[in-house]
Known about the structure:
Chain A is mainly alpha-helical and 247 residues long.
Amino acid sequence: xxxxxxxxxxxxxxxxxLEKFSGPLDLLLHLIREDEVDITDLPIAKIADxxxxxxxxxxxxxxxxxxxxxxxxxRIKAQxxxxxxxxxxxxxxxxxxxxxxLLEYQQIRELVDWFGRAAERKAERFGRGYEAPPADAPxxxxxxxxxxxxxxxxxxxxxxxxxxxxxxVPRPLDVExxxxxxxxxxxxxxxxxxxxxxxxxxxxxxVDVLSTFIALLELAKRSALTLSQSxxxxxxxxxxxxxxxxx
Amino acid sequence: MQPxxxxxxxxxxxxxxxxTLEELISLEPEAGESAIRGALDEVRxxxxxEHGVELVEIAEGWQFLTRREYAETIDRAQFALRPRRLSPxxxxxxxxxxxxxxxxxxxVDEIRGVDSGAVMDKLVExxxxxxxxxxxxxxxxxxxxTTPSFLEILGLKDLEDLPRLEELSVALRRPTPVDEPx
Lengths: 247, 182
């Protein structure tokens, strides 16, 4: 709510409280009635000036609808000032749309009076057990017994979808086999390459590669062998560890 | 009173809102509509001038209401609450919706020349208007219409009870014809 704006517009002496109005059309109708002018032949310049003087004190956020109307009035005023040829049948009265809206709105206001009177008269007759619309009451406390709770729980449980099951296959890594194979190679050779260690030639599977790699790392950790590469991504050289290194 | 009339009297007494003819028929479906209407007349005439309440046709139904002459005394004693009065903005909005229904928010804004969203939300909350359908236009806007509660607070039998637009004085001076409600 904003503070009511009271404005005395100089000579004409009318006092307007904007809060009384439910919109710019309402205010316009008020001005028209005050001036006792013909709504269909609106003295647009005069009404526009009065309208502006009434709204000039309004706070902007509240006045958006009023400002829009003010702009519309000024545009119509300008259009009325444009010269036009005598007897120009094409000429369209720039006020026509506003007048149409005002008449429509005036009719609404008459209906509002009628509605207000009807509601007043109805309020004089009480129905049985009339209850005023409740204020925002807090929700009623929950009242349930154990059976309700159990059946609710069952309902919820029945809504749970079947769990998705995955069969987990043990990884068929054969680290022990690879370790034995590498140890056998170490018996025969001082050094050998990665492809010798993997074995299986071009048919080596990913599992073979992984098994071999883990076995090599494990044996290197146990100092049974050393791993070296002459350059990054170069071929891996696997070398039997010297007895000293083997500790 | 006949047993059927007594049944209707009891049901209307028990209900705290107007009961429609269909609802009354559902009490005794075998009786048939004309018998129910007859019984309603019987209840109404037996409440003639002899009682402080009377049977009133309202909001597309029937309801026992207190006689007007006791309003002030009952009100003063605060035995019953008057409904809250509606603001002019709410009445304006109701009037537009009553005559233009089903009508969208934009059209109401346009006719009133102000944003009417908050007022319409309040009216929906009070159960006086409701969304009745969706429009065809852009974004399929919600279209509103009045509810039986609207008829009840104005004490109207039905929408036909609203003043006809041509009965309004201003309509006679209107340069263009208005859209009449169907």
